[in-house]
Amino acid sequence: MVLQADQNKNTTCIDNGKCQLLCSGLKTKAWDDLVPVPKCLLPWSSFLVFAVAVLCFSNSIYGEFVFDDSEAVINNLDLKPDTPLTNIFKNDFWGTKLTHNASHKSYRPLTVLTFRINYFATGLQPCSFHIVNILLHGTVSALVLKVMAAVLNKSLEEEAPRAAFLSAFLFSVHPIHTESVSAVVGRADLLCGIFFLLSFLCYVHASNDMEVSLLCLFGSIFLAGLAMLCKEQGITVIGVCCVYDIIIICKVDFFDVCRTAFKQQKNMSLSAMFPFKKNFSLFCMRQSILTLGGCSLLALRWYIMGASTPVFQQVDNPASFEENIFVRTINYHYIYSMNVWLLFHPYWLCFDWSMGCIPLIQTSNDCRLFAVFLFWIFFFHLIYRTVSHPDRKIRRLLYLALAFILVPFLPASNLFFRVGFVVAERVLYLPSIGFCLLVVIGMKQLNTLLGGNYHQSLQCCIFILLTVFGIRCIQRSADWKNEETLFGSGLKVCPLNAKVHYNIAKNAADGGDRETAIRGYQEAIRLNPLYDQAMNNLANILKDQGKLMEAEKLLLSAIKIRPDFAAAWMNLGIVQSSLKKMNDAERSYLMALRYRKRYPDCYYNLGNLYLELKQHDDAYKAWRNATSLQPTHLVAWNNMVIMLDSIGHLSKAESVAREALHHLPLEASLHFNLANTLGKAGKYSESEKHFLTAIQINGSNPTYHTNLGVLYHRWKKYQLAENAYKRALDLKPDMKSAKDNLRLLYKTLSRV
Question: What is the pTM of this model?
Answer without folding.
Answer: 0.81
